[in-house]
Every structure is written in C-alpha cells, then in structure tokens.
Design brief:
The protein is mainly alpha-helical. Helix content is 43%, strand content 7%. It is built from eleven helices and four strands. A two-stranded antiparallel ribbon has the order 1-2. Helix 9 (192-200) crosses helix 11. The mean pLDDT is 97.
C-alpha cells in the first residue's frame, strides 16, 4: 500500500461545508455535495491515479473510482468533509451494480468494518512496510514485523479484501510480466535500472500517472528501485 502524501490542509469546496453532527446527517450532506468530481480529480492527481488501497489503475481497468472516507463517515461524521480523510478508491457506482459483494475490494468492501487502532491507512507514512507481495499475486504481512503489526496487516488485508481473486490474478500477471523482462534484461546484459524506471517513474501510462502496483514493482526491484527513486523521483520514496 503506497503512502499517499497530503500536500494541503484542505480544499475550498470542502471547507465551505457544514460539519455533520451524526451519521444520518453525514450521509445526507455527502449525498448533496456537488463538487465530488472536482475533489475526486484532485485526489487522483495526488495519488498518480492509483487506487489508494489496491494500487490498481481503475481507469485503465474500466473499474472507475469513488471518493473513499478512510475513517467512515458513519463512525466519525465530523470527518465527512475532512480532506485528510479522503482518498480516491477503485470501483464506482456502476461497477457496484455488477460485482457481487464478496468480490468487491477496497472501501466498498470495508464499509463500516473499521477499527482505527488496527487499520493501516494509505495516509500513514510507513504503510508500505507492513506488506509483502508474492509471485502468486498474494499480499501478506511482511516477515519480521512485531506480532501486533502482523495482526494489523492481516486485519487490513482482510477488511479491504486485498486478496480478492481479481486482485490476486492482476498482481500475478504483473509480477510474471516484470519477472520475464527482468530475466530477459539479465540474459542480454541490458540495464536493469532502465527497466525498473519504466514502471516506477510517472508518465508511461499518462502524464502525472504511475503504472499499477507501484509497491509490488518497488519491492521486486529492491535496491535498484530505491536508487531509481532517489535519483529521479524522491517524492515517491
């Protein structure tokens, strides 16, 4: 899970809204909010168009996005219009109509099943350190974590359904693709640094965007990835 750095304190369109006092008021206020498209576009720009939890490129996959309340507005209505509580997440309302509930992932799977002390947020600076990606497409708690952190990682994976069959298949296909290219570059003595840069640096799939599964790619290339980011995109570290 890539850390999403918040660059501002708030957005004017959010700041103008009245703070809801209870869950029902929060639902009504958010439903009546007219600037969702603007806010979502802003969130996508700061996330390089990656889903805040799964890191899919939902636009390219035809899944669409929605605005996610990391801390659900039903739990904390006061944060309904809190910019620091918002993120762009995969699966728009049209996709919800065709995807069975057990196959959803991200915020539309989490819903109100949220415990602040256990949940690892995309707005947490060290969010990536809790997870490892395997060659079969699975995401698991990283080895070497303290027991409490392992439990937090396991809980977060489960509550977001990050090992849904769709996500697992997509990650496995991505892993296989970069693994094949890695072996080819090694055999031909081509630059592994240049290979890593293709999908670690913004721009290949659109200006100001990243390729999907950034953290998986970063983990796969290890120290090569860290050097590429230090040299060319330190803001992504």
């Amino acid at each position: 899970m890539r850390f999403v750095r918040k660059e501002m304190q708030t957005l004017a369109s959010l700041q103008r809204q009245t703070t809801p006092l209870d869950a029902d008021a929060a639902t009504r206020a958010w439903g009546n909010f007219k600037d969702k498209d603007y806010v979502q576009d802003f969130l996508l720009e700061e996330q390089y168009h990656l889903c805040c939890y799964s890191e899919v490129r939902a636009d390219l996959a035809g899944l669409g996005y929605h605005i996610e309340h990391v801390e659900p507005k039903s739990r904390n209505p006061a944060r309904t219009f809190d910019y620091t509580n918002l993120a762009a997440c995969a699966l728009d309302s049209q996709m919800l109509a065709v995807i069975p509930s057990e196959e959803r992932f991200g915020g539309h799977f989490k819903l109100s099943r949220y415990h602040s002390r256990a949940f690892i947020s995309c707005h947490q600076a060290d969010s990536a350190r809790y997870f490892s990606y395997l060659s079969d497409g699975s995401i698991v708690p990283r080895l070497g974590l303290h027991l409490r952190d392992t439990r937090r990682a396991r809980y977060t994976i489960a509550v977001l359904n990050l090992n849904s069959e769709y996500l697992r298949q997509q990650r496995q296909a991505w892993w296989d693709e970069i693994a094949d290219l890695f072996e080819q570059h090694q055999a031909q003595n081509w630059s592994l640094t240049d290979l890593a840069a293709i999908d670690l640096l913004p721009g290949r799939l659109g200006k100001g965007t990243l390729s999907p599964f950034f953290t998986l790619t970063r983990q796969f290339f290890g120290h090569i990835a860290e050097q590429v980011l230090r040299d060319h995109a330190p803001a992504l570290l």
